[in-house]
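task queued by scheduler; priority normal; single chain, no ligands, no partner chains; default sampling; output format set to structure tokens
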Amino acid sequence: MAANGIGQAGTLRFEESARQIAENARFIAGGVNSNFRLGMAPGPLVFKRGEGAYLIDVDGNRIIDYYCGMGATVLGHTPQPVLEAVRQQAEKGILFAGQAPIEYEAAKLICERVPSAERLRFGSSGSEVAQAAMRLARAATGRRTIVKFEGHYHGWFDNILWSTAPGLNAAGPEDAPTPVIGSRGQDPQAGEGLAILGWNDLAALEARLAKGDVAAALMEPAMCNQGAIAPLPGYLEGALAACRRHGALLIFDEVITGFRLARGGAQERFGVTPDLTLMAKAIANGFPVAAIAGRADLLDLFADGVLHGGTFNAQPIAMAAMVATQKC
């Protein structure tokens, strides 16, 4: 939908976006700062501003933002409570290399809202907290293998970017998927700690867990990165029970489902509480906030020899945006 920028045939025009992308590819590789923006139809666009549910691009098109900032702008582009909270915090300070009361308020809100969240640690992106979760699971169990499911996406790092969108000619048989690398230049040995399974197949998960070497099963509780696919009745409950039987952790990646399917995420919607949960995107309406949350005994390992760091973790302005978002 657009208010202007419409050609004679009634179609939108995007010539200025294309020109700016091409011109600035001299400075930014491909003209974009995330490969996921390259595939947007009709091509990567350049935006001047956002207004509520709309984006206005450099061609003057006023477009409904169905992408919602890749799922992050759950309140739209100009929610006044968030903007005001950011303004107030910016006047107090940007980054302290220490703690601020606002991060404790933010943590308390999530722990009260998300069923699995007895403790948490903040990060800046979903990719980062996925790494933290795998490290934590391996430390807690003394095991190496992470079960990862075809079509699920948990970030762009070498050790997890496998079988996110495998072609049928490369994926192998349904009951024994072939690990498919996600990018040129990716270290093929980085995937040696993964076991790839088909999702929604409880028997296959049970059989793999029975080998006794799995630290955690990591999954989207509702598959969103390759179509909106709900868990089969009893699948999440069965996965949790199987992990319990075989000494593995269950990790829900709620970067997409969190704060959308319910205030407490998919785990609230489906009534299944995992050991660990990953959150990002809609948690702070477009500000770079992520979190790993879960059982207190697991999260407390971060204070007992398991390294988790990040200069921008719990950055006060982002925390203020998160608190305001969660209170809306």
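post-processing summary
- The two ends are 27 Å apart (CA to CA).
- The CA atoms of residues 50 and 201 lie 42 Å apart.
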